[in-house]
Write a structure and sequence with these properties.
The protein is mainly α. The protein has two domains: about 70 residues, D-Maltodextrin-Binding Protein, domain 2 (3-Layer(aba) Sandwich); about 50 residues, no CATH class. The protein is about 40% helix and about 5% strand. The protein has a three-stranded parallel beta sheet, sandwiched between helices. The radius of gyration is 20 Å and the shape is elongated.
């Protein structure tokens, strides 16, 4: 993170130890890290210029900015952090009540067939969702 003949650029990043972004910044050479306990603290530090970077999804940043009264349009997207993009799943243990698992599957199929799942995807900007597996 430096240029020839120039002093290294110090970029400060805010993250929570509870987030996978903490491990990402630690393992990718970030040296100036503020560990926060609340999203409000992280986004406040960004808008006050106390940190330079937050690693969150664009949707989450927009929601945090709006929730805490900040102007989202003042943020600049630097890059996609593909290493942190992960598919979320819902899992049941082998010992789960089969009736509960079946009720969940039926509820999911209802959301899918009624169009509500597509509405949720549009609302939350989730476009690459995989269908629920019926294998067990």
């Amino acid at each position: 993170m430096c240029c020839r003949g120039r002093e290294p650029i110090k970029l400060w990043v805010a993250t929570s130890k509870a987030y996978n972004s903490a491990q990402y910044v630690e393992s990718n050479g970030f040296k100036h890290i503020y560990y926060t306990t609340q999203d409000r603290q992280s986004i406040g530090m960004l808008y006050k210029g106390r940190v330079d970077i937050l690693i969150r999804s664009e949707l989450v940043l927009q929601q945090l900015a709006e929730k805490y009264g900040h102007d989202f349009s003042k943020l600049i997207k630097l890059a996609n952090v593909v290493e942190l993009n992960n598919e979320l799943s819902i899992a049941f243990s082998h010992g789960s009540d089969p009736a509960l698992v079946n009720r969940f599957r039926q509820a999911y199929l209802y959301l899918q067939n009624s169009g509500e799942l597509d509405q949720l995807r549009q609302t939350w900007r989730v476009y690459d969702d995989m269908p629920l597996s019926t294998n067990h």
